[in-house]
């Protein structure tokens, strides 16, 4: 009986505690819920929780505009396609063989006609000059002397042609197209000094025949100076194919450069099956020339303004206008956000081709937070391995060129010479993905970064980047530079494509459900990121000759495309 009373008392006491236990449990659940909401997601980088910068040119310092409302995930999200390949690329291939009607060089080359050229700019700008020089020699039925590289201005690189390119391969592989010799022959036992002259930019086939050929017939040996972009974009089909044979087959790097470049590629492949190569173009000189403003206040204006003074003929620009028009490189953070929105997660390995980045680690920190697997040639190669190349900007640029060319995805941060050359090359060799930021539209999106959700941001980035991803037929034939869009040298496997089109179709997001190839003219013409670049002719005070930029791989093309119709520099 006593035991029964004790049990009854125990149960009554327990029932009286139940409301208290329930209340405490409820409070704990509420607190836990609040903590879950307020605590940062483990997939968000701390680098993106600070207020973003205002890019307005009339603001004197960084301005906070509020905490971002979107959180950046560590994964790339779901996509309807493989981010490492281009759609329909298997239906297109490079084709540059000469037709049967293209006469052999031995039958058309005239005696006592020698063409020399002096290239201008960095490695890739000089590459365009070399390519066009071969075609110019063909137009003039002249013997080409191996081109001289620019050793005086800006880059201060003493390399000659044979230090960068395999000269024997160059002359042999083009022997059916143009006769090429290494040196101008002596004349009557004496050194022959060629007559110097300059042709206008974008000089057509008729231009060479009417303006250059008469001088060549009188002088017999002429040297075309500052030879970059001195040949028309539109030429006869067979001459365009010759351009491709030169650029994609005859210009082969020397064995030491090739060996080191392949070593860098191999080391990237050992780290990951796929990798992105990024041409960052965020060097102080690049930013100074662009005339853009990135929110760094008076310090940024003073630093970049001092660099801009090196170009005496550089126009004063409106920073807001330049950025609105897509003429400013994206910041490293913006490049990282774009790539994440396009589907590349934090596990992706990135090789960065760049010189000294403006503000160094401060600028790179957000990009590295998004993509921790971050490499450069200096981090994957020993100092002694790079020593034979490190004193020569063109050879260092060649190493970056090889890695960018071999990468699964190439990302260019604005439309310079290296970007154009590689974009065309990657089209020719299988349409490997080449991402160019649609900077004009992305600029407006980044301005609203703190006011939209991540999902909205992703949707808009993917929409804006259609036509800027290196897909086949993104650009209508004839648009842009031929070196960037070598449409004449891209052939379609019509039979294979017809089989594909006739089969059952599965459409993913972003496909053209009509089954037709579309050319995004509106995107590629209106939104094309065009970056004007300095005039390094070297004829005026304050040219780039004294600029310290060395080893960056940057290329600047002429700032002023309007030049005298024909200028004879030196008379005999």
UniProtKB/TrEMBL annotation:
Organism: Hevea brasiliensis
Signal peptide, first to last residue: none
Transmembrane segments: 20-39
Pfam families documented for this protein: O-FucT
This protein's record includes keyword Cell division: no
Domain of life: Eukaryota
PANTHER family to which the protein is assigned, alphabetical: O-FUCOSYLTRANSFERASE 16
Name of the protein described by the UniProt record: O-fucosyltransferase family protein
Family recorded in the similarity comment: Belongs to the glycosyltransferase GT106 family.
Keywords from the UniProt entry: Carbohydrate metabolism, Fucose metabolism, Glycosyltransferase, Membrane, Transferase, Transmembrane, Transmembrane helix
């Amino acid at each position: 009986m006593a035991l029964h009373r004790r049990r009854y008392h125990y149960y009554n006491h327990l029932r009286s505690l139940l409301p208290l236990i329930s209340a405490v449990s409820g409070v704990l659940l509420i607190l836990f819920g609040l903590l879950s909401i307020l605590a940062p997601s483990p997939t968000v980088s701390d680098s993106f929780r600070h207020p973003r910068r205002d890019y307005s040119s009339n603001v004197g310092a960084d301005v906070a505009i509020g905490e971002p409302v979107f959180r950046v995930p560590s994964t790339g999200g779901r996509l309807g396609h493989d981010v490492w390949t281009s759609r329909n690329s298997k239906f297109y291939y490079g084709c540059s063989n000469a037709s049967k009607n293209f006469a052999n060089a031995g039958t058309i080359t005239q005696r006592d006609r020698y063409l020399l050229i002096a290239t201008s700019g960095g490695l890739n700008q000089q590459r365009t000059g070399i390519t066009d020089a071969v075609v110019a020699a063909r137009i003039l039925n002249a013997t080409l002397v191996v081109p001289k590289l620019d050793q005086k201005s800006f880059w201060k690189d003493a390399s000659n042609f044979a230090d960068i390119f395999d000269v024997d391969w160059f002359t042999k592989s083009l022997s059916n197209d143009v006769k090429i010799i290494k040196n101008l022959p002596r004349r009557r036992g004496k050194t022959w000094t060629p007559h110097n002259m300059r042709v206008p930019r974008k000089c057509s086939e008729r231009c060479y025949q009417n303006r250059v050929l008469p001088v060549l017939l009188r002088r017999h040996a002429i040297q075309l100076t500052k030879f970059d972009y001195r040949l028309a974009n539109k030429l006869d089909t067979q001459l365009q194919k010759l351009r491709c044979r030169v650029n994609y087959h005859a210009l082969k790097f020397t064995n030491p450069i090739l060996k080191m470049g392949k070593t860098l590629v191999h080391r990237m492949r050992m780290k990951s099956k796929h990798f992105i190569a990024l041409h960052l173009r965020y060097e102080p000189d690049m930013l100074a020339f662009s005339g853009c403003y990135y929110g760094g206040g008076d310090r940024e204006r003073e630093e970049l303004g001092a660099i801009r003074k090196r170009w005496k003929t550089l126009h004063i620009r409106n920073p807001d206008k330049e950025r609105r028009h897509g003429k400013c490189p994206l910041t490293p953070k913006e490049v990282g956000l774009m790539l994440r929105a396009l589907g590349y997660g934090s596990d992706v390995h990135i090789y960065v081709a760049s010189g000294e980045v403006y503000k160094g680690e401060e600028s790179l920190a957000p990009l590295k937070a998004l993509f921790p697997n971050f490499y450069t040639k200096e981090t994957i190669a020993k100092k002694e391995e790079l020593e034979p190349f490190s004193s020569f900007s063109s050879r260092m640029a060649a190493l970056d060129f090889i890695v960018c060319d071999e990468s699964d995805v190439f990302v260019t941060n604005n439309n310079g010479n290296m970007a154009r050359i590689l974009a065309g090359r990657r089209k020719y060799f299988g349409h490997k993905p080449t991402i160019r930021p649609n900077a004009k539209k992305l600029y407006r999106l980044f301005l609203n970064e703190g006011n939209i959700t991540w999902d909205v941001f992703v949707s808009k980035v993917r929409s804006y980047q259609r036509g800027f991803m290196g897909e086949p037929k993104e650009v209508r034939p004839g648009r842009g530079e031929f070196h960037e869009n070598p449409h004449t040298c891209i052939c379609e496997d019509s039979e294979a494509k017809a089989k594909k089109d006739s089969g059952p179709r599965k459409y993913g997001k972003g496909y053209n459900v009509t089954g037709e190839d579309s050319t995004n003219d509106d995107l590629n013409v209106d939104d094309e990121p065009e970056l004007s670049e300095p005039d390094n002719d070297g004829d005026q005070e304050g040219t780039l000759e004294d600029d310290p930029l060395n080893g960056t791989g940057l290329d600047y093309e002429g700032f002023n495309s309007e030049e005298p119709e024909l200028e004879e520099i030196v008379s005999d």
